[in-house]
C-alpha cells in the first residue's frame, strides 16, 4: 500500500502525498517548535518543509523511511531559519499605569512563544527511537525549549534528534550531511550546555497533568489571583520563583521581587478573571482585565511551572497568543 502511494505521489498525485505525510505533520511542527522556540515561526517553517518535500518527492529513493526523510528536510530548514531569521524584537513595558520594579536581569529569548497542548496530543505519543533520553512532556516544557534557544543551532539539532527523538547517530549524521564523530562531539557539547542552563536546586517534581494534586494547585492560584490576594499568592511561590514576560525582556527571580511585581499589577484596583487552558504540557490561563463597563479585555496568557504544590515559575505572554488557544480577545460582561 505504501509503495503504491509513493508511486502515485511521485507521479504528481497530491492526495497520495498528503496521505503519506499527514501522519507526521504534528510531530514535525513540534520538532520545528523545539528548534525555533516560536509557535508562529514553526508553522511557517512547516509549510516550507511540506512544500519542499512535495517539490522534491520525485527524488525520494526509499533509502530511509518517509518520516526520517521529512525530519531531514525539517531539521535543515530550521537550521536555515535560526541562522538567517530576524527574531521577534524585544518590546518595552506597555502596561498603562503600572511601573514595574527593577528587573533581576534582562532575558535573551524574547521571541519565545507557547504552544497549545492541542497541538501536542498527536506529537508526543509517537514511538521514539532507542536513543531517546528525555520524557516527551519534559522536552516541550517552557524551560527546556528556552534552554535550547541559547545553544548553537547545530548542537540543538543534534540534541533534539538524538536525545528527544531517539534517532541513531548514523541517522543524524545522514540528516546533517556530517560524520558520526562530528554528531557525537556536538551532542556532548549540547548536553553540557543544556545541563548548565537547566541547573536548578533540588525541588519536587510537578504533579501529574490533570491530577487532583495539580487541580488543587490551579484552584488555589486562580482564587488568589482573581481576588488579588497577594498574601495567598506569595505563599504559593517557591523561594526562587522566576517570572518572565516575552517579548518583554524583564525577568524577576525570588519571592520578594516577584511579590513587588504582583503588587504593581494588582494596584489601582486592577482585577482579573482567568480562563484555564494548557500550554507546553503546563497549566495556563488567559488573563482578562475587568473594566467599569463589565467587558473584560484579554491582557495575555500565563503559563505556570509547578514544583509539588507550589509555583516555581510564571511566564506571561502577550494577548496576541490568545486565539491560538481558542480564547477570545475579550469576554462579555457577566
From TrEMBL:
One of its GO terms (molecular function) is sigma factor activity. Residues 194-213 are annotated as: Disordered. Residues 218-312 form the SnoaL-like domain. Keywords: DNA-binding, Sigma factor, Transcription, Transcription regulation. Residues 22-88 form the RNA polymerase sigma-70 region domain. The keyword Transmembrane helix does not apply. It comes from the Bacteria. GO terms for biological process: DNA-templated transcription initiation; response to stress. Residues 143-192 form the RNA polymerase sigma factor 70 region 4 type domain. Belongs to the sigma-70 factor family. ECF subfamily. Interacts transiently with the RNA polymerase catalytic core formed by RpoA, RpoB, RpoC and RpoZ (2 alpha, 1 beta, 1 beta' and 1 omega subunit) to form the RNA polymerase holoenzyme that can initiate transcription. This is RNA polymerase sigma factor. It comes from Planotetraspora kaengkrachanensis. The gene is rpoE_11.
